[in-house]
Amino acid sequence: MRRNVAHLSQAERDAFVAAVRKADLLSYADGVSYWDKQDQIHQGTHNHNGPSFIPWHRELCNRFERLLQQVDPGVALHYWDWTQDPRAADDGNGGTVDLTTDNFFGTAGGLLQGVLAALHNGDQVQGSRDDTGNPADPPPAIKRFCDPGAPGVDSDAMILASGDALPQAQQWPAFRTALESSHNTAHGFFGPGSNIFDPHKSFEDPFVFLLHSNVDRLFAMWQTQPGREWRLDQAQVYGSETNSSGPRGILHNLQPWDGTVEFGSPIPPWTSGSTDIEIKNCRHPSVVTPPCYDSLPVSVTQIAPTAGLPLRFLDVAEGEQTARALRLRIRGCRQVTCQAAVKGDPAFTVLQSSVVTPDPQAYESHDVFVWVLFQPGLAGSSASGTLEVNVTETGDAFSIPIEANVIAKPTVASSMVLDRSGSMDAPSGVAGLKRIEVLRNSAPLFVHLLGDDDAVGVIQFDTDAAEAMPVEVAGGTIGGAGRTGALAAIAAHVTNPNGLTSIGDGLELAAAQLGKVSGFSSQATVVFTDGFETAAKFVADVAPLITSRVFAVGLGTAEQLNPVALGELVNSSGGYLLLTGQAGADDQIRLQKYYAQIIAGMTNSAIIVDPDGFVPIGGTAVEPYPLTEADSRSDVIVLTPYARALKVALEAPDRTRIDDTNGAELAATSHHQVLRLALPAPVMPGPVGGEWKAHLSIDPDELKRIISELEERGNREEINRIRTHGLPYTLAVQARSAIRMDVVVRQSSRLPGGDAQIRVSLAEAGIPLAHTVSVHAEISGPAAKPYVLPLPEVADGEFGEKLPTPVAGLYRVHLRAAGTSLRGEPFTREELRTIPVWNRVDDRIIVGDGHA
Q1: Known CDD domains for this protein (predicted)?
Q2: What top-level class would CATH report for the domain 604-737?
Q3: Does domain 5-288 correspond to CATH entry 1.10.10.10?
Q4: Measured distance CA(495)–CA(530) in Å, rounded
């Protein structure tokens, strides 16, 4: 902040003068000191009496201030209020101060003495720059012969209002003429024979920067007059002179920093070929933006909601905490504090009772968000209150009504579209299992993870499509009608050995199926296929009919599936496509993870952790995971081909033990277990937030049966692995939470040599989680070894980076986020994405012949 130099404390004055002295001891490469360079610049340019006079001197002051701050980051280029006598200036505390003492800026009458005397040659011409012609040498003398009293300048108010009555285009010419006139008077105040009096020697005296900082202060005050924001716009501030050219014109590049001068040779370091050269004119934002002065106003404007309107929480889902914000725009050079409180219904609270703006580095605007949290009650209820906000520094006060209503929890109706073409009888990569069997083992997890009020239907497709089950409400975890029907349809799903692959037929029938249902918050279609399209209808044929979000799972590689049309459909609908890649032993687990992630995305749940491990025989595997007070439900999912032999129990942060006997609901198949827990659980007295633990142990009787079955099949290798390591598992934890992680991946090209832009956003109840989260991606690609790609925060709660895709194949991206919630509680989030790249013409839809 540039301040009235007379208002500085003694310590601040000493630091300011010390910085000027040190600037004379540090030099550029040509041997000219930082201080002496200022006179060299002024000698080579002499920008006066024209449109660019004031902005050119702003650039000079800004650059000199940065040099001083290299010496002492705490100093600023303070100003002299030229309406006051520098020998008796108002000190801001009811007294006066002499700026011309030997321990400050020196004399008002005669040769400069004291702490700044080293800036001249002691009134000797010999050895001075006037003698040697070397700008690195000091001037012969620095002298002042100030007039008595204060300079006869116009008042600040007269200068600032000099053009206000004129049309907008004429205000700048009138203002800058009035300001330059008072500037000339101030120079003359130092008297004939003084350096400042002579325009060719004025920048040999450091007091000239106090004078020109005041010129710039008045320019800044003129720009920041309330109601005249156009003066901060580079296209409007200079009015009729905006496009003036020539050496004094607004569009003329600023010398000498552009590598040219008006008089003499270019000035180092801004010479030909130098990287220090900067080409800009007076319309550049760095010139138009005012520096911070202590006399500039601070304004507070309500941006949203529009003044007079309430802060509305419309149709908030039951149990889902939501946030809305009062948005204030603070413009000025000072930090301000907004004190906030809510009156009325206790369902409303403020996130922070005190919000402080960032420390501005120039006269700039910052938007302040005062967040109000709403904890909704039962569906059909409503609430009201008032947000009171007071801005301490300005006295501004805002009183905003708050309105809210609550609706039932959101529900989703989904259609599972499952491939039964002939190729589904091919080996899967999982030992002894066909692709159709892997599908039947994986898809039930999707059904078990549905909410009780969600709905599901099943479509089968090969050459044609058929409805295996209409859309029905899932119902309870155990015995729900829709859940039971969908599981039965999946179990009965078999191949048509002669069937081709018509994904379009399946999508069309799913759209018709979903079109018959209503009363759900959203709809989603989930496609599973193992090959590219070989029969009409094709995806492109039916894409206009699809109104739901579409998610797709592909068993195979990009070359095998050619997912161009399907990929475009899912991306445009708000879904995504996941591929397994080359067939392998992990395909079944991978498909289960994909289905679990898709249902999480459909139901606004979040993936918290996803570790792998072994449950030792006779022991217990313990997997910790964090939950927060923002979480309203958790699903602990255990994936393993030996699910029937595992026992799962949960441990809350208060050490309460929870399983399917005292509050959790269990859904299980031979390939997975899901332990669902509504939060907060009645059985636990303590808080939800904190470290939870999943305890996995082995049922010895079931283990014996598994070993016996493996012996019958002669699988000694698997028996030895189990006896050595235990039973393998993958554990995934999902939470219905106010903390959301959204992921978008966009490829520049599907051909090798392109890249994929990864964008991740994290928010709690709609509030961006800024500066409290770190995000990285674990990348496994077709060529390089797995590696970690950090995602920097590019905006509040937004993280992004480009992933190069140099060779063909499948790139697996495992995104992990870790941070703290709005309440300071630790949390984690994870998601998977796959990026297909292949050596075919980009974006070409390949149609094959024969079986898929």
Answers
A1: vWFA
A2: mainly beta
A3: no
A4: 12
